[in-house]
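Sequence design from tokenized structure. All designs in this work follow the same two-part layout: the structure record, then the generated sequence. An example of the structure record is given first.
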């Protein structure tokens, strides 16, 4: 075998270099773990606004893992040599984006532009973590990808919803105009270990309240619905979407269609946590969507993916995580 051929073969076997923005967050850190486990070289980019170093602590020092502290609002170094980009950088919890709405829009829009520029320059495939929030307060349920949404651009959630919608638009324009290789995942509510205790989303709030004996806060009358997907399954779907061969023409919903009312969800958490907390009702936030349930026919067809971790199994692992976080049991007992 010639040296040239050997070098070419070695190059073709080169480990993929993957950039994960928002890699120190809840979803991003699980994604980094999984990609490292698959043999990739991973660059985790984060500004630690809602992410935490402890999420990626076990990866620090790994020879195929590196951390880049950077804000996606600022342009990225063109020297960043990457084959794939997962763009997850953005606050995802309603209280987190309500606290910094202008920054949230900028993160989605400028972040998308900066990462698309890098992907285009490098001919890297880029996956955008979009959201079911692009459907707003939906008038159809379940929501297929063809549903165009029902978002009020003047409302307090719009910084997130419209920021993500604009990012999708930028992705498709880059694909049409510049040939950028894009993938769009519309992620529905995902839960699991590593959500922050003070994150403000329903799963972390209710579990922490149940474990600490505090009142469990249900907003509104609790008849609104969400469909909860366990984090490992969402991450698996993201990896499959990135790897799917050929052109994936449009966005793909990723979520678990097991739709629950928040009242049901609170009751299950209370029972599984062995809690005697009271369930109390608090005002419904403005524009809180009434229903949310993914139509996942596209994911099933294109990715051969279907979530099968049941809510109780996923909650058992998540409750174990929060028990550890709250210092109630030694870390080695975490599931
Ligand atoms: P998260 O808040 O835990 O993670 C977001 C990460 O992005 C954090 O580490 C944060 O520090 C980082 N970040 C935020 N702004 C940044 C910036 N300007 N520059 C660099 N880093 C920045 O949230 P998550 O639940 O892990 O969500 C990750 C992504 O998935 C988000 O884009 C979110 O919109 C999307 N998503 C999540 C869900 C879900 O249920 N978890 C649902 C739909 C979409
Ligand atoms: N919610 C609740 N109690 C809480 C936090 C949230 O009842 O302590 C409700 C919230 O009003 C919404 C649902 O639970 O109807 C999911 O909220 P979350 O913030 O997790 O995410 P969203 O799907 O609204 O982005």
């Amino acid at each position: 075998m010639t040296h040239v051929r050997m070098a070419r073969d070695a190059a073709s076997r080169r480990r993929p270099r993957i950039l994960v923005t928002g890699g120190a967050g809840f979803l991003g850190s699980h994604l980094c773990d999984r990609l490292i486990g698959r043999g990739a070289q991973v660059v985790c980019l984060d500004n630690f606004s809602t992410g935490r170093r402890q999420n990626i602590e076990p990866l620090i020092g790994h020879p195929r893992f590196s951390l880049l502290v950077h804000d996606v609002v600022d342009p990225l170094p063109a020297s960043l040599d990457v084959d794939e980009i997962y763009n997850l950088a953005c606050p995802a919890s309603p209280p987190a984006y309500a606290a910094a709405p202008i920054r949230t829009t900028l993160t989605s829009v400028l972040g998308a532009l900066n990462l698309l520029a890098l992907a285009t320059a490098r001919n890297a495939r880029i996956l955008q973590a979009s959201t079911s929030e692009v459907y707003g307060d939906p008038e159809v349920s379940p929501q297929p990808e063809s549903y165009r949404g029902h978002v009020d651009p003047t409302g307090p959630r719009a910084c997130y919803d419209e920021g993500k919608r604009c990012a999708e638009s930028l992705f498709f324009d880059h694909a049409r105009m510049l040939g950028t290789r894009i993938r769009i995942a519309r992620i529905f509510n995902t839960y699991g270990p590593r959500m922050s205790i003070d994150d403000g989303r329903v799963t972390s709030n209710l579990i922490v309240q149940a474990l600490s004996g505090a009142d469990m806060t249900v907003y509104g009358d609790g008849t609104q619905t969400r469909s909860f997907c366990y984090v490992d399954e969402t991450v698996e779907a993201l990896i499959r979407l990135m790897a799917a061969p050929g052109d994936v023409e449009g966005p793909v919903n990723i979520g678990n269609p097991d739709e629950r009312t928040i009242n049901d969800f609170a009751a299950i958490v209370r029972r599984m946590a062995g809690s005697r907390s009271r369930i109390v009702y608090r005002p419904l936030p403005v524009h809180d969507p009434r229903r949310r349930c993914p139509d996942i026919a596209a994911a099933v067809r294109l990715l051969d993916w279907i979530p099968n971790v049941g809510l109780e199994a996923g909650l058992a692992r998540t409750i174990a995580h929060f028990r550890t976080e709250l210092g109630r049991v030694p870390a080695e007992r975490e599931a």
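Residues 330-335 have pLDDT under 50 and may be disordered. We note this feature because it recurs in several other targets discussed in the main text.
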